[in-house]
Structures are given as C-alpha cells and as structure tokens.
Amino acid sequence: MLKKLLFALLFVNITYPTMQKTALVCGAGGFIGGHLVKRLKEEGYWVRGVDIKACEFCTTAADDFMIGDLRDPQVCKKVCYLPNNQSFDEMYQLAADMGGMGYISQHDAAIMHNSALININMIEQARYTGIGKVFYSSSACIYPEHNQLDPNNPNCVENSAYPAAPDTEYGWEKLFSERLYKSYARDYGMDIRIARFHNIFGPEGTWCGGREKAPAALSRKVAEAPNGGTIEIWGKGDQTRSFLYIDECIEGIRRLMNSDVTTVLNIGSDEMITINDLAKMVIEISGKNLSIKNVPGPEGVRGRNSDNNLIKQKLNWAPSQALRIGMNKTFAWVKNQVETSSAPALAYTH
Fold first, then answer.
1. How far is residue 298's CA from residue 239's CA, in Å, rounded to a whole number?
2. 259-298 pLDDT, tens digit each
3. Out of 170, 184, 245, 348, which one is annotated catalytic?
4. What domains are defined for the chain?
5. Bridge partners of 251?
6. Cβ-based neighbours of 275, under 8 Å, separated by 6 or more
7. Most Cβ neighbours (<10 Å): which of 1, 31, 169, 316?
8. Annotated catalytic residue 170
9. Is the Cβ–Cβ distance between 268 and 244 less than 8 Å?
10. Closest by alpha carbon to 16, among 85, 89, 82, 67?
11. How far apart are CA 136 and CA 222, in angstroms?
C-alpha cells in the first residue's frame, strides 16, 4: 500500500499531454540524457525522464522526472505508462552503468549485470506497452580489439564489429544489447534505431569521482594544477581517440530517429587525436605553463576513431565541429566547477 501511495504521489500536479508527441528518456539524469531532454522539449515534445538519480549539474527540463531503478521490472512497467492507456511515441534508452577507463576497467561484473538488466527490462516493457519507436545507445567499445592495435589506423567501420572481440566487458554487454534490440525488431516488428557513440563530451557531464572521461578529466587536472606544475596521463599518451561534442551527438540522435534508417550507425567525430595532444590542447586553452608526466594506468585500445562514411551515406550528414571549439566550452565549464565545488579528491585520474 505504501509503495502504491508513493508512486501515486509522483503524478501529483503533472500536466499530461493531449496532442503533443511524447518521449520517454531513460538515463535522463545523466549527461547525454539531460541534454536530449532539453532538445526534445525545444522541439515541442512532452517528456518523461527517468533515472536512478536526479540531474547532478542542472535542473531537468522534463515535464515529469521519475527517480527509479530500471533494474527492477516493476519500475520499468510504471515509467512506461501514461494515463488513459496511452503509449509513448518514442523511447530513448540511454541508461547504463558506465564511466571512463578508471571505472570500467575495475567493475566488469557490475557493469554487465546492471546494464543488461536495464536493457532486458526496458525493451520488453516497450514491446508490452506498444511504444512507437525506440532508440538504443550503443558504444564504439563494441569494436574488436584487434582492429584497434595501430593508433594511427584504427578500423571502426560499422560492419567490422564481427567476428566480435571487444577489449572490455562493457563492450561485450553493449554488443549483446544491440543483438537484443535487433531481435525484438525482427520478432515483434518493433521500430528500433541503434547508434554507437564515440566519446561524447561537453558541459554538464561528470568531471570528477572516477566515472569521468578524458576531456573532462584532463580539463579538471589542468584547472586544478598550479601554473608551472605537472599533470599525469595514463599510458604513453600516444593512444588515439576521437571526441564528439554533445550538441552534435544530440543532432545525430534526432536525425537518426527522424529517418527510416534501421542500420546501426556510428555517431562520432573523425578528428583523431592522441591523448597527450589532447592534454596539450587543454593546457593551451587554460593559458598555463604545465608539463605532462606519463604514468602506468589503464588506457584501453591503442587507437579508436569514428568512421563516418556510412552515416554520411544514410543520413546525408555527419559531425563536423572542430574538437577545439568543444574543448574551449568544456574547459570553461569544468574550470568553473573546480573553482566553486567542494568535491573531494579523486579516486581515479586519466
């Protein structure tokens, strides 16, 4: 009885849609999910967000935000229902247990267990409630390790995913979930879109605590370092990556969802950079005089870069913003967090 009462209270003073398109964003308390909610609201959607936590660095733009653990099938059932037996027009499944290399290299079991449960629960509930169209966020981490041994020539073409050999269990779970969503599309006729994200970054993302990724972690280190000091980088620093600014990621999601393309696509930048050079870029942006010290630590695959040929072919579009533009904005935001936050010392660094 208490659970029913608490759930009923979540719906108090909520105005439900009549003629608007509706969207359910899972993982709306996270970085990408929070930005996606803002974009959908700008487009006139009625949006329900759900996450195990509230937005950490901003106020949600969602019409209705529900705190809930999507590993629980009963929570998934509740969030998928609108009044009068309405079904959501669209669902965006971004919820996952994840983080940067410092986190995913040490939490294999939790990542696979938590993320797999979320995906199994949400796709089944989406089928049961008749949600119109579903987006699933996969990852570039699904690509085979043997295709990413040369930092100067990685192969991340979409059809190179098989024979499968991801370098992390995080990548294996993402690949499993891709197959899960494809199976639901085949067996139940569901309308599903899947994209593989390549290192999304920008303001309002995790910047400390161990789950942050390289752009935010490096921005934090540079912002914290005294002028004339040193920052540490895991590995030799010659490992390569590409990084996509959040606005272009959201644009790619919306273009894919508004298309009839059911092929799995990369959503990422093809501007490849070494981690040492990324650190040098952040140092230059800061105006400080800092040196780099390379130290032992997890660094992932040797090279990874988004191959954008297929997305150009299918959507007649691909990300094009220069990395420096996004890093200028990201460093300014992280610097402000460092100067105004009382966050504790970090358990992990990049």
1. 11
2. 999 999 999 999 999 999 999 999 999 999 999 999 998 8
3. 170
4. 21-201+243-267 (3.40.50.720)
5. none
6. 214, 233, 234, 235, 237, 238, 239, 240, 241, 299, 350
7. 31
8. yes
9. yes
10. 82
11. 34
